[in-house]
From TrEMBL:
Protein name in UniProt: Cystathionine gamma-lyase
Gene3D superfamilies: Aspartate Aminotransferase, domain 1, Type I PLP-dependent aspartate aminotransferase-like (Major domain)
Sites of N6-(pyridoxal phosphate)lysine modification: 199
Record keywords, A-Z: Lyase, Pyridoxal phosphate
Amino acid sequence: MFISKFIETKLILGGVDGDQATGAVNVPIYQTSTYRQAGLGENTGWEYSRTGNPTRAALEALIAELEGGVAGFAFASGMAATSTVLSLFKAGDRLIISSNVYGGTFRVLDKVFKNLGIHYSIEDTTNLETLETKITPDVKAFFVESPANPLLTVTDLSAVAQIAKNHGLLTIVDNTFMTPYLQRPLELGADIVVHSATKYLGGHSNLVAGLAVTSNKELADRLAFAQNAVGAVLGPFDSFLLIQGIKTLGVRLDRHTENALRIARYLETAEAVKKVYYPGLPTAQGYEINKRQAKNGGAMISFELNGNYDVRKFFKGLKLISLAESLGGVESLVCHPATMTHASIPKEIREKVGITDGLIRLSVGIEKVDDLILDLNSGIQASLT
Ligand SMILES: *Cc1c(COP(=O)(O)O)cnc(C)c1O
């Protein structure tokens, strides 16, 4: 159903809007595992909730519409979405992954799929020339993030998707950091988008969920089969919560990203800060590419303190911003990638890609930005050894 060409409106009215039967403005929570059948072979279109559930289906239609794909799929977590997508590959296949890919994505490839004969190579997907030379006959897909976790490195998504097409490969993009409000990889040529909806799409740090969307009908059929066969589906209540979260995505991200730009500028001038990573700063790697493919720089910032500032004391010195894993909620969170989100990546690889022990990652929330800057300043004062 055509509602509007504007994503701000689709966020609220897209997918399945409310309930036809009662006029309820929200999609009901169909908390059921099964559906009564009138006779053999006579069903309502709903048979069993692993295969399909109306609340989950409403969410799936919504994310498909937002990303501009043909079908959406909801999973119990972002990793369940990624793992189900990876289950489309077979023994002997290889994926090329971005060097700053999410730690859990690396872990599932390295510790689970590698044992099944599905291999990976870590490459710098920001370097298009060398990327093309890394394509061996067993490579079947690129798996990229842009901006990538945690150094916010920007990959040219349409260029990578074009290289993939030239070589008959799939392009899979983890769009968690941007969401379809800021960036739509399928429109740039990608085949599959995955999300940890736990982050911005949910937006309130109150659920764990994953989504996948594809632009290709054949892939949609294979994903539907894998979703049902593997079975890591999202439950009706969490599907409902996620639909609620998505309604406010636009207004939240407007504030998140406005705050982030202010904070990045503050950190850039702070004497304690050695380096700021934020794709919304004109000095950042990939600024121009990001500007072309995304609405703005998003709301994730990483920064490194100078050597005479103690990172541990910095975290202790914060009063308002919480030290926690995760990101994308309304509240600001900081984390230490080397010991938290990226601890599963061996130290040599971490150091090689720039995830140093002094690196701090900040998920900028929607609080009053002046409070956040004051708090970061307290952290910096406390960290001066
Ligand atoms: C959190 C995250 C994931 C994993 O999602 P879960 O919902 O925690 O399973 C994948 N990719 C990125 C970029 C993430 O931030």
